[in-house]
Amino acid sequence: MSGSGPYWLVPGVPGKNPVSTNAQIPPMKGTKPMKIHQPDLSRSCHRLMLMTRPGQIKVPNRLDQGDSHSVRLCQRILFVGSVGNSRGRTIMDYGDGTLSVWAGEQVPMWERSTQVPIVQSVSFGYRDIDEWISVALGETPGHIYSRNTNPTVAVFEQRIAALERAEAATSFATGMAAISGTLHTLLGPGSRVVSVKDTYGGTTKLFLEFLPSIGVEVALVDTDDHEAIESSIAEGCDVLYLETPTNPTLKILDLERLAAAGHAVGAIVVVDNTFATPINHRPLSLGADLVLHSATKFLGGHADALGGIVCGRSDLVGRIYHYREINGATMDPFAAYLLLRSVKTLHLRVERQNASALAIARHLEGHPAIEAVFYPGLESHPNHDVAARQMKGFGGVLSFSIRGGFDAVRAVLPRLELAHLAANLGAVETIVGPPATTSHVEMSAKEREEMGIPESLVRYSTGIEDLADLIADLDQALEVVDQ
Ligand code: PLP
């Protein structure tokens, strides 16, 4: 292994690891244990940064020792960073808004820029062979080669780890790369995974096509039946893979209940948190071992960058990182920069999208052109009580079926003026599409029908436009439906 590995949040997670000097990071295969030092603010800023964790941008040499502004910057950054500040606060003491803006930005950056630079460099040069070897062995913080680690990408990993209150995170080129990298790391010939029928279409393909071809036994259970899921888990499994709310019918899984069932048989519990985001719920606090995202969606929020990320226990993330560094599905530094900029407004966007989606769901529930509305925030949703218990908000995506089947979908969607008809979700603009061209494009109409996804369904990802305008737009588009 070369490079210094994924981002480790170990010293700042109370209860998991003490906030202390010289905290020991669990070694990854092939590396020696790494010592983490609590920075000493009485020393120079330059020295301070050399003593901190991997994944950080080095302080330029020309930063004067004892420069009081630099020291103040470091103090401010440590105040909001993950290692705890001089008053002993850790990330657990900060809110989502503060972490969205600041987490990961622990250092005075290149030429004193206030924004994280895009380090578009394939490799990192060393004059001293011993230092190079030390970085390669993971003994000294630093970067070797950007397929393994990169300073801009590392800040993105730190930020999402902080938002998920995770020990560690490692990123990927796309959400599907994160999902397949995780499943291929944790599963092999002879192992068994339990999941549900309603996972994202690409994930379902992994379960139906790719994993069985390498000898993994896959059990996909009815998402609505928690008892059936528990029975399948009780037969024994290595991984329990969950997604909630599901795409596109917004079903809800009780994470605490299912994680407990998974742990009872020694399974690793993985949750796709793409739809909820860490603003709406944090699966790790509900018992999951790993949480992953298509960062392409709400984390990015502007539909201009692809990405994926996996957060969780450092031993597991270390294994997934190792798979990814060799497999090569690495996040690009420019994508990391775009995603970092976007995450600064994650809490604001998601709060707005939660509120608008709920209001639109309530409006459509009484609309004569609509057969059914699927949204966990509605009291009529079968698992509304579970959603209300485990989520802070119900998310920006809803779906609804239009009277008149697929012909009605064909007629209504092009009439929308304030929505992209596109295969994406989670952006600042409203986006609509039927499962046939979005989440379940990989499936045939028959397979969708078997999964309980009607052809009259529309997935509606609420943007941040004015609510009154969105409702008026929907109403005028639905006028074409025989009511
Ligand atoms: N997980 C969910 C819930 C998704 O909706 C998607 C894509 O829509 C993915 C994973 C895959 O993400 P990506 O398109 O970034 O590979």
Helix/strand layout:
Blueprint: E1 7-8, E2 23-25, E3 34-36, H1 45-50, H2 68-80, H3 96-102, H4 129-136, H5 151-163, E4 168-172, H6 175-186, E5 192-196, H7 201-213, E6 217-221, H8 226-234, E7 239-243, H9 255-264, E8 268-272, H10 277-280, E9 290-294, E10 308-312, H11 314-327, H12 333-343, H13 346-365, E11 370-374, H14 384-390, E12 397-402, H15 405-412, E13 420-421, E14 431-433, H16 445-450, E15 457-461, H17 467-478
Parallel strand pairs: 5-6, 5-7, 7-8, 8-9, 13-14
Antiparallel strand pairs: 1-4, 2-3, 4-10, 9-10, 11-12, 12-15, 14-15
Helix pairs in contact: 3-5, 5-12, 6-7, 6-11, 8-9
Summarize the structure.
The protein is built from 17 helices and 15 strands. It has 483 residues and is an alpha/beta fold. It has three domains: 149 residues, no CATH class; 185 residues, Aspartate Aminotransferase, domain 2, CATH 3.40.640.10; 132 residues, Aspartate Aminotransferase, domain 1.
